[in-house]
Structure formats: C-alpha cells, structure tokens
Amino acid sequence: MNEFDYDMINRYLDGEMTPEEKNAFELGMQQNTDLQNEVDLVKDVQSTLKIKLHPTENELAVRNSIAEIKTEYFSNKTQTAKIASLGRNRWVTAIAAVFVLALVLTVWRPWKKEDLYQQYAAIDMPATAERGSTTDSLLNLAVANFNSKNFAEAIPLFETVLKDSAQNNFVQYFYGIALLQDDQIEKARIQLTGLSTGSSIFRNEALFYMALSYLKEKNRTACKDWLKKIPLDDAAWVKAQGLLKKL
Amino acid sequence: MAEAKLIHTDQRYLTGLLQNDTALIREIYDRFSGKVKAHIIQNSGSADDAADIFQESLIDIYQQAQHKNLQLTCPFEPFLFLVCKRKWLNELKKRSRQGVTKDPDDVFNIGEDVFALAEQFQVQEDNASLFCAMFKQLSGRCRKIINKCLANSPQEEVAEELGVSYAYLRKKKSECTAELIKLIKTKQGSYNE
After folding, report:
1. pLDDT tens digits for A151-164?
2. Which one of A52, A90, A239, B161 is most buried, by most CB atoms within 10 A?
3. Residue A11: its chain B contacts at CB < 8 A?
C-alpha cells in the first residue's frame, strides 16, 4: 500500500527541496495521479492535525471569548431559551451592581481625604457560584475572604480555582485585586496586564486597578498615564476622571 | 468546489468569529443558542451538554473558516443548527444511547443550500476526527515527532530538542508519516467495504 517515498513528500510539503528537485517532483505528480493524490492526502492530514494540535493565538482568544460569553447563556438554573436571556440580564446586573457599589463606596467613604488609594481600591466581590462543585465551594470561600479583606487567605483559593478554570476573567480580575491589596504589586500587575490587554469585560476595570497599583506606590505620574488609557464610553472612565481630578 | 457560489450576507458571523468580535459572538449566542439548547434538552441532553455542543460547534466552524476556507453560501442559523444537531447525534452515539432524535421540522425551513454546505462541512469534520483518531494509535515516539514537526519551529530546532540528528529526524518523520497514512487508508477502506 505504501509504495511512496514519504521523505520526498515531506520535503516537498515542507518546502525543503532545491528548485531542481521541486520541478522534477511536480512533473512526477503531473504524470502520476496516484502520487498527486498521495501528496494531497498527506498535506490534508498534516494541515488538519496542525489545526487540532497547535491552535493559533487568535483561536485561543476566540475560545476565551466564547467560554466567557457561554456562562451568561447557559447554566443549570436556566432551562428554556426564554430564561436564558434572563440569565444574561442577571449576570449583567450583578456586574453592574459591583461597579455601582464600588462607586458609591468610593464617594462616601469617611476616610476619603486620607488615602486616595484606599478610597478607590475598595470593592466587594459578588458571589456568583451556583453549581455546588468543589471548585465553586472554593470560590465561595475565596469570595467570603475577599469581602472580609482577608486577602492573604483569598489568594491561594483563587489560585486553586484558576487551576481548573484558567480562562475565568471574573476570577482573574478579583485575584489581581487581591494581590494588589496584599501588596504583591508586581504579581498583581502581571495579572491585571493580562486582563487589560484582552477582550474581557473587565478590561477597563483592570486598567483602573493598574493605575491604582502605581498610586499605591505614590507614583502619581504613572497612575495618571494608566487612567488616561480608559476609554470614554466605559463606566470605569467616570471613576478614572474623578481620581484624575484629585491627583 | 467547482462552481463559485454567492456568499450569503450572514458571512458576517464567520468574519466576526475570525476577528474575535465579542459583540458579534454575543449576538450569535443571543439569537441562536436558544433553539439549539431546546433541541438538545428535548433529546436526552442537559443544559450543560447544550452549552458544550454549541461552543464546540462554533470552534469547529471557526477552524474551518480559518484554515479550510469555509464560506457561508446559505443562512447561518439553520447551518449552525445542523452542525450542532449532528454533533449531538455523534455524542449520543458515543454514549451508546439510542441515536434517534426528534426532528425539529417545524423549527426552520431548511433549504437545499444549507444541507449542501452542512454536508461539505461534515466531510471535513469526519476527516479530522478520523485523522486524529489514527494519530492517537501511533506509537508515543511517532506522535511526539509528528507533533513537534507540525509546530512552527524549524526542523533543525526540532531535531535538537529531541536530541537526534536532523537526518535521523527526517527518516523517523517519513516512517511515522507512512505509518499514519497506512492506518488512515486501512480505516477508510473498512468504511467502504
């Protein structure tokens, strides 16, 4: 069955032939349709395996987006198409609530004049886990610790959760904030930079916390630079402008 | 494809997927995921199954659009639905339940063009699963060699990484390719008998 010279076929497909060899090989294919078919098959097999074994950066980004959006539309509690759209609204409401709460807290905190960083960094993490798996119990525990400002305890819990769902931007975002609050500034920046350069809905919030990481070090110039990166049409922009005025 | 066909305006969904346009991916979920979910739940599946099938189908479509020049010559919704339905049937077969599903005739008016494109899509997907299944049957050494050679690094670097000479790598690669092609042809032969 295998009467073909696969080294030749591979070298042809890999573009490793000399021009003379290539011409001769192509002439051979013209005269021998079996060889032509074999080359086509090997090419198809290799390109297909390559797609499956080595996803492109872009594909990984698309997978990431899909995984993120998927959770809004599918969950155990939503059973019909009608409720699916409600599920999404609830999710959006939850996130909106976080931001509004953060905004409210930052405006009325009594120690407002003392420490801009503290004033702006305060945020509560909403509990979203519903399914009751081990990971979700861990996440709930992480949320509880986060909201009680036990950041050092929340951090390893987030890390465990992220081992299972590395693509979860929601968890990544609060993990980044926990690191920042726990003074692990460099690690926090790595985490937040990842989010701020992606297409996640936390992108601009991550930019805001990147700015805060510099404020925490009293580097107001860098803080301002980061705040200015937040686009006009985003909720985080309002906060950013408020902070910019005070700097 | 011998004849050039008109590209449907719904091609924008494929373009959006390729560009990782999250607003458009959201629109796909918003508009199309409900019916797929209802279909899978009506046919012995759960909401989680539906979520997985929908996600994997989108990735399959992405991959064919990216690498195999898939273009929409028909509306997207019924096409996506057929792709998801077929994937779910395969999954049911794997779980060795009864592979008979209730046909949602009333859901869409599915045109010939949709069936034709879905069929062409499926041939590629079937080939891909055959190639992957046969690849898994290769020896660990062959899998490693082929895998490394398909990554984008130069073959000389692959040889160095594997601790072998370049000539040896070439020899092993051609042996492994021959073995893989033989497995694939044998399997294809068994289908045709």
Report:
1. 988 898 898 888 87
2. A239
3. 170
